[in-house]
Amino acid sequence: MHYRTGDLRDQLAHLGHAVVQAGLVVGSGGNLSARAPYADECWVTAAGTWLDRLDRGSFVRVRITDGAALDNGAAPSSELGLHLATYRARPDVNAIVHLHPQSVLLLDAVGAPIVLATTDHAFYLRRVATTPFVPPGRPEVGALAAAACADGTNCVVLSRHGCSVIADSVELAHKRAFYLEEAAQLTYRALLLGRPLDPLPTDWLHADNVTA
């Protein structure tokens, strides 16, 4: 079955329901956004929305250059700055998924890096960056995340906070979010077994012919 197509808000609503069902976020935590390729406006979840209860009215249209809300009386997410800074730094990005995945955050809290252990991890994630802790909603959250992904990194762990996963489509951002949490879960389980995972060979991980 093909991924949901059409209106970006419908695609994001589909993603939101799926990530809640998968346990990657609870309550009204996390936020989502998407834009048409190279557009200067995006749809971002409104403040306080529950990601498994989204519909078209749950999004605010925002101009990327100055952060102005263009319609819908609702206020955008308090992490709007994260989305705007990332779009400005990465013109190729059309979707941003900010979640609070438990395994990702647990490993961050104990200082254990996420190991990319499978070919799927290599293909979809390539590498994972981590930014220092900054209280949620601060402008520094967006600035640090944008700097971390400026080199082409697509998965950023916001220390003690969550993750920012980006892609050129909602579907690919969705896949990356799932694989990031899977990589974290495998890393954690290996640590429990007392057998830390060996990462894939660095020269192979960054090869141009990596395939899923």
TrEMBL record:
Keywords: Lyase, Metal-binding. One of its GO terms (molecular function) is metal ion binding. Gene3D superfamilies: Class II aldolase/adducin N-terminal domain. GO terms for cellular component: cytosol. The keyword Lyase applies. Residues 10-188 form the Class II aldolase/adducin N-terminal domain. GO terms for biological process: pentose catabolic process. Pfam families: Aldolase_II. It comes from the Bacteria. This is Fuculose phosphate aldolase.
